[in-house]
Amino acid sequence: MCLLASRRAAATVVVAAALAIAVLAPGAALAPRAANAQSTEAVGVGADRLAGGDRYATARRVALATFDSADVAILAAGHDYADALAAAYAGGVAQAPVLLTGRERLPEHTDLTLRRLDTQRVVLVGGRAALDPSLADELESRGLQVERVAGGDRFATAAAVAKRWGDADAVGTLKGQRTALLANGRGFADALAAGPVAAGAQLPLLLTTPESTTATATAIDAMESLNIQRVVIVGGEEAVSPAVADRLADRGLAVERWAGRDRLHTARTVAAKAVQELGFDAQPAVLARGGTFADALTASVHAGSANVPVLLTGGDALGAPTTQWLADHCGELAKVRAVGGAAAIAPSVLNRAAETAEACRDDVDRFRETSRQSPGLPPRAVDPQLTEVRLGLGQAQDRVEWHLAGDRAAWLVEWVQQPTRGQSLKPLQVEGEAYLAVTLFGRAQWGGNYQGPQRFDVNGANVAEVVLADDFEGTMRWIIGLQRRAPFAAQAQADPNRFVIDVTRAP
After folding, report:
1. Pairing of strands 254-258, 230-234
2. Of 93, 205, 243, 286, which is the most buried if we count CB atoms within 10 A?
3. Domains in the chain: how many in total?
């Protein structure tokens, strides 16, 4: 059982009781902290590590952090990456951990993991040269069912894994097409970056060589048997040549490439594409060393089960691409996790990652509230009147403003599970997947009810719709429908009097 399952500024025409949509100048949507805004304690970015004394013990720690039980486990060679690279897809489809083993004997840590997870069936990924028949005999003697999935070489093994698990329901899609990943099988770096995507999005991971050879033919044969329509080449043209891409296109396949100038840049590209196009999350940030294969391989299913990518690092340096990724997602991240011991990723690297992810915390801590209210809620000795609602659509956050004539209103902002209309508690249809309720309090008799639009369709970074839910006896309640729950800031501002909410794009 898996545990993890600058837009151009535009002028605003002010029309009382009407909507005005303004594209805010860079930085404008993040208003300064108001004097009466409630402060929040810094949440901070946590850092932890999944590691053991060796690669087998690390794989155990990763498996137990991902599963509380596993009827099936995938075993791959811990001493050679050749056949092991395709195991991530198998683990993702089977919802099974990827554990490492020796060629002839089962390491103690792997044995303990199988017992702890109450595993009944083991799948060996790799041929007899990688995993000796004596290993299968040992497993069977312990009462385990054993299956071997293999081919004549690493390319055929990857194809066999894809065919074994790639039935009609176990091949994911990208842009509405059944999709496979293709990486260079003569090295492991690009395939490791692809592993979490293979596991999480259930995209078969096939291998080829830089040139258009029989390895490519083996991959194409697997693609055809799986009715693949789109191929994502992971790695640059030196890893998988344009000739290979042309050969795929000639077979009627849509082809795209996710690549960077080196393994760390490629991993960053894969991470960005996974978030942008496959719905992956950036949180938590999972790090593995890019110079060795074992830890990143076992991290693939762990990260994939949470739909997060794996970022690659050096042993004693975070690397510019990973540093930039963490900086780009600063404010979204609550945790940075290293997979592998201190010899694989130095403590200084993990600390640097957490510091980078937290560097913007002073700017975003004010977005962390789950609810906010004005001081002394609810004072009624005020006489505000809503004159208009404005929207500011930015690239990183969206703003909603309620402009008031007269005094400021008291206010309350809170998350709600289900929008309701007025005092009836009848469901209110609002576009979105998460909802903020904004209540403005005034005198029992306002200077006249709001006469403007009551529903605004929005195409913001996060805000989908703003709807008036209640306007009765001094209380006005609006619902903001969001594409996703995200941090927000709320404050009253003057000149002109208005109540402002900024909602970030990121969760």
Report:
1. parallel
2. 205
3. 2
